[in-house]
Write a structure and sequence with these properties.
This protein is an all-alpha fold. It has two domains: 155 residues, Orthogonal Bundle (Cytochrome Bc1 Complex, Chain D, domain 2), CATH 1.10.760.10; 170 residues, Orthogonal Bundle (Cytochrome Bc1 Complex, Chain D, domain 2), CATH 1.10.760. The chain contains 15 helices and two strands. A two-stranded antiparallel ribbon has the order 1-2. The N terminus is likely disordered.
């Protein structure tokens, strides 16, 4: 329940028809409940259980010390309250760990959208030398030799192929096209193509299982959702026992003056697309975000057009992806569900409080002009008063799941 202001009579001005339309569009009732067509075990209870085991399994990492949960911490809202997580001292992670709340509803994954499915995304940290520093052959060894994991795997995906069981696999082998002299890359190239394909199939199935678990991390029962659903049932009456006057004022700002809904639209409070936030840290690091990610996405051997995708449709969203200079410096719009618990904020993790983010956007026109970048047409200074910022913070807090 929102605190800090006693609930009283509703505001004098009722919601307009336009505002009611927007409020209804943000309700969790409109969240897509479909399973991922590219992942045949999406929504499968056995895959969810197996994926949960894998998510917390440190043996997926190269040295047996890191799991998915090492960064996406359950007690930190499936994110990480550090600005940047340094897992290995000799390597730098340059982007903040995003929360997994509602990740099921994303169209693109990572801050730059360099993968097009949740299961493909789940594979990347495993082989990233700055994160888990494992390899797909190591994963094959783990599944084959750890009886409990093998039993769960084979119950879902069938028996592990005999050619894979008979192969003399290096403990660390995987393709590294950008650095072909690496021993792991050389070891991978020495494997027969049929063995490589069997390993890749097993590896993709591991990603699909982890994704099946991550799809269950939902924040779809918030005070705002209850408010929206009751308003939908009776558009002439405020459910004043759910949102305080401050939260209602913040909701009106979100839809109208502040224009937050222009990017944070739909039931997941995100348009799922990419925008330039004009952050100083981003400019100084020459992080081009979506622009550089396009090439990686289209060449990903586990993308939605690969043989490892279970999607049957001949149409694919990758058919409409292209690289454009306008994408430089753009990053994905995050969901605002459970936003009060997923600090710090932005892909740089540089803002500790929601108020800090709003203060930044309050003067973003200056940031845009100072850096002489192309103009992001949806972004402009909010010109909010201190009271209005306070009201917006109260509203954003109402987007917390009541289980949180």
């Amino acid at each position: 329940m929102i605190t800090g202001e006693a609930f009283a009579e509703p505001p004098a001005t009722q919601f307009s028809l336009r505002e009611i339309h927007h409020i209804k569009s943000l309700s969790s009732q409109h969240l897509d409940t479909k399973n991922d067509p590219s992942n045949r075990v999406s929504g499968n209870p056995a895959a969810i259980a197996f994926g949960s085991t894998l998510f917390f399994e440190p043996q997926l990492s190269g040295d047996g010390t890191m799991a998915c949960s090492s960064c996406h911490k359950p007690d930190e809202s499936w994110a990480n309250h550090q600005s940047m997580t340094s897992l290995r001292p000799q390597h730098t992670i340059t982007r903040h760990v995003p929360s997994l709340w509602g990740v099921k509803y994303n169209r693109w994954y990572f801050w730059d959208g360099r993968t097009d499915s949740l299961w493909s995304q789940a594979l990347k940290p495993i082989e990233n030398i700055a994160e888990m520093a494992g390899s797909r052959t190591q994963i094959a060894h783990l599944i084959i030799n750890k009886s409990r994991l093998r039993q769960q795997y084979e119950a879902l995906f069938g028996a592990i192929p005999s050619l894979l069981l008979a192969a003399n696999l290096s403990k660390k082998a995987y393709p590294i096209p950008h650095d072909p002299q690496q021993p792991a890359h050389i070891a991978w190239q020495q494997l027969p193509f049929s063995v490589q394909q069997a390993i890749n199939t097993l590896f993709s199935n591991i990603g699909k299982s982890i994704a099946a678990f991550e799809e269950t991390l939902l924040a779809n029962n918030t005070l705002f959702d209850q408010f929206s659903n009751r308003l939908k049932a009776n558009s002439t009456t405020y459910p004043t026992d759910l949102l305080s006057p401050a939260a209602i004022r913040g909701l009106k700002l979100f839809i109208n003056k502040a224009g937050c809904i222009n990017c944070h639209s739909g039931a997941n409070f995100s348009d799922g697309e990419f925008h330039h936030p004009f952050l100083k840290a981003n400019t100084e690091s020459n992080d081009f975000g979506r622009y550089d990610a396009i090439k990686t996405l289209l060449s990903d051997p586990f993308n939605g057009k690969s043989t490892f995708s279970d999607a049957k449709s001949s149409r694919n969203k990758l058919d409409y992806v292209y690289q454009n200079i306008e994408f430089r410096g753009q990053f994905k719009t995050p969901s605002l569900r459970n936003i009060a618990h997923t600090y710090p904020y932005m892909h740089t993790g540089e803002f500790k409080r929601l108020r800090d983010v709003l203060n930044y956007y309050n003067s973003i026109s200056k940031q845009m002009n100072d850096r002489n970048k192309h103009q992001e047409i949806l972004l402009k200074s909010l010109a909010l008063s201190t009271q209005e910022i306070n009201d917006l913070v109260v509203f954003l807090t109402s987007l917390s799941d009541i289980k949180q």
